[in-house]
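haha ok so turns out i had the wrong file open the whole time. this is the CORRECT one, sorry everyone. sequence first:
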Amino acid sequence: MRFLQLTLVWAVILQTGLCQRQRPCRAPAELTSSINATSVQINYQAQLISADSGNEIIVTVIASWETIYSEGFEPDGFLVKIFSAGTSGEEQLPILNHCTSSNGAWISDTDCDQDDIVSPNCPTGIEPSADTCLCRSSNCSRFDNLNCRGVNSWQQSDGLLAVGKDVRSLEAIAEFHTSYQITLRPYYREAVSLQDFGITQAGANDCHQLVTESTNLSAREAVKICCELNVPHFLPLDLKASEIKVNFTSGKASAIISWLPPVFKENIEFKTLVPTTDFNDPPVTGNIDRILTAQVPEYLDVPCYDSTYSYQFVVSNLNIRNNYLVRITPSFADNITELYCERPSLCTSVYDLQLEDVNFCDEPFNPCLDNYICVRNVTSASETLYSCEYNSAGKALSVSLLLKAVFASVLIYSTIGLL
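then structure:
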């Protein structure tokens, strides 16, 4: 008996190894050189389920793509796999919106031999396309060569599922704070594209924003529900820039970056870094100060959020002709950073400070002192002249700064993530 078990194990290993070493099935030139999957992306949606026992949030991951074919040619379908990125097993998530098959290939032919046809795996209420048949990938009579690395080999060795040629999106149940990946390979008959058009996308880590975008709930209602369901929130809240001060003489600016701590904020620390690459005059950042919160915005005025303290720091020596990227890294206790922030984008919060169309003579940017008048003179489509003119007893003193419109914007991004 033990001999039989060992024999079966070695047979499986040998078969898997042969599949990996097999020569790829010869494909039509259109499949190998002309087909292209474009606009491949992964998005998330949230559905709120209300019941007597309480609310529930169902998160789904949606992978979508477009395709470009050679004229007069189209593949039979796609081999796909959606799975949690970084998992050792890379298990395929069950597809919710299309029929799939792990042992068959959709063929653009309705006249398949009955002995070749296998049953698809279809979600409730979903029917397969009527203009195709699902042919057994291991011995389909429509295949020219079954001894090469084709659809059957990819399904066995990589766990890919076959979907029809008209499929352009796949949906599956997901979880918060988990990155997902899609593998996408077009196929024609037994031949599979050697190019993988898949991508990896950071997980849905902002419960408040996802619920707000996916439902008709207000921001305050979304925060309240996410808190009640104990969905951890690792991003700063109410992130903003204030007290932006511009100096026409030096061409420099300063700003205060401030935020409220996340809902999940036990043992939190913040570190900040302003990169200085390509800048001859690097900005200067002050220490992060922990201050008493004066008032929380209305959407955070919920019982589950307590913002006793907020955080802020000053960034100065900003050249108003340059763009700056401000990174803020949170550190949590109990290995939370490693669990939920293994990718920088999983802990990213972004705030854009757009100054491109701002009149620096307007409040609160006007730097001119009392008895000085701020003058803005647009000399051309690409040049703007600012000056603080002193007007007393007919005297005029001008301090001017020539600004190129193409450079007259400052973008400050605040990024939460591991550096």
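Residues 1-20, 393-419 have pLDDT under 50 and may be disordered.
again sry for the mixup
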